[in-house]
Amino acid sequence: xxHKHNIEALDRTLGDILGKRDRPFGGITVLFGGDFRQTLPVxxxxxxxxxxxxxxxxxxxxxxxxxxxxxxxxxxDCSPESDTFAKYxxxxxxxxxxxxxxxxxxxxxxxxxxxxxxxxxxxxxGIEQGNKPDDYFAERTILSCKNxxxxxxxxxxxxxxxxxxxxxxxxxxxxxxxxxxxxVEYLNSLTVNGLPLTRLALKxxxxxxxxxxxxxxxxxxNGTCMIxxxxxxxxxxxRILGGDGKTVFLPRMAxxxxxEDLHIPLRHRQFPVxxxxxxxxxxxxxxxxxxxxxxxxxxxxxxxxxxxALSRCxxxxxxxxxxxxxxxxxxxxxxVFNQILAxxx
Length: 345
Description:
By secondary structure, this protein is of the alpha+beta class.
């Protein structure tokens, strides 16, 4: 998902430091890891051509890359069923088993009911009872394409989750002298990708995801999953999922959206977390869990999203998919940009 400009900037920097600008990365051997079947760099409101152009494969450095291939899917369980599923996933990523109209028919056993509640109960059985161990949340998630759908799913599951709900409102302000031109109510209504919600609803025991790199040496990185223990006046007390289960304290912090994301010089002060019952497909990339639910009521809209969603689960028998109510079968869109795979697969 790295934009080619990031890699080219590293190339120029190492060339300047080592005084060898005529050699890639100043003559240092660099190892890249990735899969072009997965999602490509995000170009806001970008066209297909712009997304392809932002990929590392279209960088001037690509001619100096020596390709090495990995042949074993380490995310899947070791079984004959998983070996067959691994080949099936590769075909999905290359659009080899898609119809002429760009759609794909998924196995019938993945179909999960006709509404969101059926998907929630399939992925989070007994969520109403509470007192779940950490592994319960670490081993399951629901994926969707759009942030709005993820927010709706998280809200619905939180309503079923036991406990007293705590509402934390963000302190929004404007960083220029024109603050009086923007009422607080208007600022609170703004939603920016990558920033926590203005109205953050939480319950003790619910899973959270960290949205910023706070302390990587202690495991507080963007995407770290945690369990909320207590909501205090100025901090959230949480326990990191996995590892040694370290208890951490998260403060409120001021976050400024990028100028291209919002034309208003907004300063958003809120706890840098998001409910983690569900997440976007792009955010899930790199993770592996035992149970995955996929909300395809809104079909995928970008290269590799369906491939990424299906490959998050360690077994095909534990994937549940929610299709649109108007769809009686298991057919869905599969977006693949064949140009990016040419000469690689």
